[in-house]
């Protein structure tokens, strides 16, 4: 328990300056924290059998894809596209056909899908809300500078 509290404090100490900086460093920091959150949620699952490492890596790639896949500093779009939402579904349900019943089941696949969607969408929205804040400030700066130029003419 102490290790988790200490790691949360370290994550906050890293995240607060990145929040002030914003931009690409903030997105990369959020991406790293989302990977750590994915790892922690996978470690919570003790009542089921072990998930194969290949599927864990696929899930990790899906989390990073959902969090950082459409990162655009100039965009105000909060909607995820259908292909971005379907790709994890296909990638994690397809291995259930090839693994034996006891090694990787559809129950495990849906557990991973829920984890990936929870972590991916949550951290993607954190990045999007920070970008909206930056874009609103940039628009006010442009309006202010535009009006200032007109006043001097």
Q: What topology does this entry show?
A:
Elements: H1 2-21, H2 23-44, H3 53-68, H4 82-93, H5 95-98, H6 106-152
Helix pairs in contact: 1-2, 2-3, 2-6, 3-4, 3-6, 4-6
Description:
The protein has 153 residues and is mainly α. The chain is 79% helix and 0% strand. It has 6 helices and no strands. The protein is flat, with a radius of gyration of 20 Å. It starts with a helix and ends with a helix.
Structural key phrases:
single chain; 153 residues; mainly alpha
A few lines on this structure:
With 153 residues, the protein is mostly helical. The chain has six helices and no strands.
Shape from CA axes?
flat
Which structural class do the helices and strands define? mainly alpha
Beta-strand content bin: under 5%
Largest sheet geometry: none
**Count of distinct strands:** 0
The Rg value, from CA coordinates, equals 20 Å
Instruction: Summarize the amount of helix as a percent range.
Output: over 70%
Q: State the low-pLDDT regions, or none.
A: none
- Alpha-carbon distance between the two ends: 64 Å
Rounded average pLDDT: 79
Please work out how many helical segments DSSP would assign: 6
The succession of helices and strands, N to C, reads HHHHHH
């Amino acid at each position: 328990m102490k290790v988790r509290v200490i790691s949360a404090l370290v994550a906050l100490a890293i995240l607060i300056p990145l929040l002030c900086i914003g931009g690409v460093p903030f997105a990369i920091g959020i991406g790293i924290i989302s990977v750590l959150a994915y790892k922690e949620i996978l470690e919570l699952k003790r009542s089921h059998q072990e998930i194969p490492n290949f599927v864990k890596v696929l899930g990790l790639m899906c989390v990073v894809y959902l969090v950082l896949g459409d990162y655009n500093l100039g965009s105000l779009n909060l909607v995820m596209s259908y292909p971005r939402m379907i790709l994890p579904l296909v990638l994690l349900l397809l291995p259930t056909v090839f693994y034996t019943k006891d090694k990787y089941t559809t129950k495990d696949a849906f557990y991973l899908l829920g984890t990936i969607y929870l972590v991916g969408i949550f951290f993607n929205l954190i990045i999007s809300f920070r970008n909206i804040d930056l874009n609103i400030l940039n628009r006010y700066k442009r309006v202010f500078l535009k009006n200032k130029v007109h006043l001097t003419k």
